[in-house]
Amino acid sequence: MRVNDLHLLPRFADGLTFLYVEKARVGQEKGALVLTDDSGKISVPVAALGVLMLGPGTSITHAAVTTCADSGCSIVFCGEAGVRFYASGLGETRRSANLLEQARCWADARIHLDVVRRMYRMRFEQTLDPSLSLEQIRGMEGVRVREAYAKLSRETGITWSGRAYGSNDWDASSPVNRALSTANTCLYGLCHAAIVSTGFSPGLGFVHTGKNLAFVYDIADLYKVDITVPIAFRLTKAAPTKLDTAVRQACRTEFRRTRLLERIVPDIQRCLGLKPEAAHLFDTSDDAEIQPALWGPDHNVEGAVNYGSTQ
Length: 311
Description:
This protein is of the alpha/beta class. It folds into two domains: 3-94, CATH 3.100.10.20; 97-275 and 289-310, CRISPR-associated endonuclease Cas1, C-terminal domain (Four Helix Bundle (Hemerythrin (Met), subunit A)), CATH 1.20.120. It is 43% helix and 16% strand. The strands form three sheets. It has a five-stranded mixed β-sheet with strand order 8-7-5-1-10, sandwiched between helices. A hairpin with a 2-residue loop joins strand 3 (32-37) and strand 4. The longest helix is centred in the middle third of the chain and has 23 residues, at 134-156.
């Protein structure tokens, strides 16, 4: 718990404020949250918080939960530095404005396609020709991802023969594929926490569809090539004794270094055509039967396919 940092909490009007706490007890005194650990305790004005993220080693009292609920502060139970998402409680998510806007965009085929194009545009970081079809854009993205894997394979010397893994036989996957799965799971946790804590639905996806985390996959895809893919290849080359553990720790460090959570919330809003709002993070420390699919304006197409090789 970094006591000095907590005094810097901005007003809620300044943006959506996330407070991450680990290895501390969260209580309530005189209408405020009180964080206590071996170094002492400090009072935190709950009205300044949008989301309270509880990491490993935390406990919270009934009174503190009630105070958060009354003040519209969401509570998220997560892994270290938010790399895993476990559960959440109601806060400002009781307001349905964000969910209704997401549902409106999802249900209208024309607006849905606009969101898909906007997501791909954010990945490319360039303007796309408006005459390009969804299939052409999807193929371009597939080529981009394939080239990213090939480039990292050359740089690290790690043999790359494609994304292949089996959730039922983890050890049968290649080390780099296991590293990629581990890194992406960490990213999904952080994106999931950001989505539910701001009142959006993790299941209403635009590029992805058919799974209850479809929107989580949509948002995570904005960052994979820049963050989790390089981490997976770099650590596979380093060959640590416990690769999965090393990958999770590296993701935690990189998420903190890049302040990724602060980027996710406004990026969600940009994807949906909403006005992006600032987000601030203060840090105190089997669906295998459901086949993945990608949304299309006329019909869904098979997921887990690199469409860059089909062009």
